[in-house]
Each structure stands twice: as C-alpha cells, then as structure tokens.
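The protein record passed on for reference:
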Amino acid sequence: MMSQQKFYDVYVSYPPGIDRERINACLLDNLPENEANDLIQALAERPQAIIAENCTKDERENAQQYFSYLGLDVIIRHSLELMPDDTEEEDKVQPIVDQCPVCRTMIDNPEETAECPTCRLHFATATESVIARKRIEWEEKVAFEHKKQQEIAHRMQLEKLAEEKRLRKQIRAELEEKMEKELGMPRWMSWFKGEKALITGGVILVVVIILIAAGYFLGQSGK
C-alpha cells in the first residue's frame, strides 16, 4: 500500500542571543524588499513567523537550507490539515517534526539516526552544555560562510568592473584607430592621443632634460 505523502509548514525565528539587526540586514540583502520587510515585521510581532505552508519534503529542505544560510532558526511542523483523519492515532500526532537542536536539520527517522548528518551532533551523548557549545560553533560557521560568500561576490563584481573598463578602453582605441585610417590621418599623430600621449610626453621630457644637461656641461667645459 502506497504511503500518503507528508506535507510541512516552515517557520523561522531569530536564534537566541544573535544580533537581530545583522540578521535583518542579511534578509534585506538577499530577499526581495517587500518579502524581507514583511518577514522582519512578522518576527517583530511574534517569536516565530511562518514562511511556507503545505511544503513537500524537497521544498521543506530547500527552505530550511536557504533560511538557515540567512542566519535564522528554521522550525518544521507537520501540516496538520493535510494529515489523514485517523481518530485512533490522533493522540499520537506530534506537530513538531524531530530536528537537530544545533543546526535544525530535519531528522526523519530519529529512532534510527545516531547523529545529525549536517553538524555531526551525537544525540545519545548530547548534554545541554554540549548542545549550547555546538550551537555557537554552528552559528559562527554559518555567519562565516555567509560573509565569505559576500566577499567572493564583491571581489567578482570588482573583477567584472575592471574587465569591462579594460574592454571599453580596447574598443575605444580600436575605433579611434579605424577612424584615423578612414580620415587618412598620419600614423605619427596617434602618438599624441590617449595613453600614447602620456608615453610621448614622457619621452619628450626626457629628451629635453638630456639636451639641457648636455648644454650645461658643454658650457662648463668651454670656460
């Protein structure tokens, strides 16, 4: 008999002790402005805000991964309205699906899972102090990865702008050279345009200095 597909609701909350303004800035940087503002407003009004309803397992995992990356805690609940109406098992329904207390990864089969597949927390030996310590380490790792991604994106943007500038200068030089050929301008005039003008000016300045120095020494030797 084919088992009925499970659906989930996805909630987010601020991690305890985290700088909320930093999280809000991250949301504004990575979400559409209206979505980010709505989420920030929702989290200001209540401890948890729902971001997705009636998700499939894949949708749930994508949402969990993305919003964890943004620095939020992700809480998963069964979509109760889509669960089968079985009165015999009604009292056994748990609204919150088991999650790792450190990284909030979903654990579909907690009875058969010894450790979290994401942060490697060993459930059998995890005390409150161990969970608190690993939670701080996990949040630091997430924050570091986010900052690293931002720096990589910034560096790539700078490299892109530099490459665009180089290409524009190259195209401009090619167009100027083409125009000079079409107008029949002497080739020596190109040495007084653009970057070549700087080189030409430098060469002329050196020659003038040499001539002045030569004239001075000749004058001294003639005395």
Notes: Residues 128-183 form the longest helix (56 residues). Strands lie at 8-13, 49-55, 73-78. Confidence is low (pLDDT under 50) at residues 82-97.
